[in-house]
């Protein structure tokens, strides 16, 4: 993984955090954080994307697996941000597991 790829992950998380803190009407991400929906909207999307990743892997559809995996990571980041978890906490946990 190159530094550019790592920067994309950090930039994505920063944009998600910004949309949570500074909602925009034209933003899908902001809509996932709407208070009346609570945590349910991002959790439902996370579950949906998990199923789609599973099906793409089962069908051995590599392009679809990559596409759905990107959706899964995005929606996971939305859930983490909704719960106030910083990207660094996730990365530190992964670092601890590296062996």
What does this structure look like?
By secondary structure, this protein is mainly α. Helix content is 76%, strand content 0%. It has one domain: Helix Hairpins, CATH 1.10.287. It is globular, with a radius of gyration of 14 Å.
Summarize the helices and strands and which ones pair or pack:
Blueprint: H1 3-21, H2 28-32, H3 40-58, H4 62-82, H5 87-97
Helix pairs in contact: 1-4, 3-4
What's this model, at a glance?
The chain has 99 residues and is an all-alpha fold. It has helices at residues 3-21, 28-32, 40-58, 62-82, 87-97. Helix 1 (3-21) packs across helix 4 (62-82) and helix 3 runs antiparallel to helix 4.
Give unreliable regions as ranges.
none
**CATH architecture descriptor name:** Orthogonal Bundle
Largest sheet: none
Please state the overall shape, judged from the principal axes of the Cα atoms.
globular
Tell me the CATH superfamily: MazG-like
Secondary-structure-based class equals mainly alpha
Classify the helix fraction into a percent range.
over 70%
Order of helices and strands: HHHHH
């Amino acid at each position: 993984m190159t530094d550019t790829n790592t920067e994309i992950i950090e930039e994505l998380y920063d944009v998600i955090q910004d949309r949570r803190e500074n909602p925009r009407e034209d933003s899908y991400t902001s809509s996932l954080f709407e208070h009346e929906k609570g945590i349910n909207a991002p959790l439902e999307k996370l579950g949906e994307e998990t199923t789609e990743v599973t099906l793409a892997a089962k069908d051995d559809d590599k392009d679809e697996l990559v596409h759905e995996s990107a959706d899964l990571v995005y929606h996971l980041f939305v859930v983490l941000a909704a719960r106030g978890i910083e990207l660094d906490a996730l990365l530190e946990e992964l670092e601890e597991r590296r062996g």
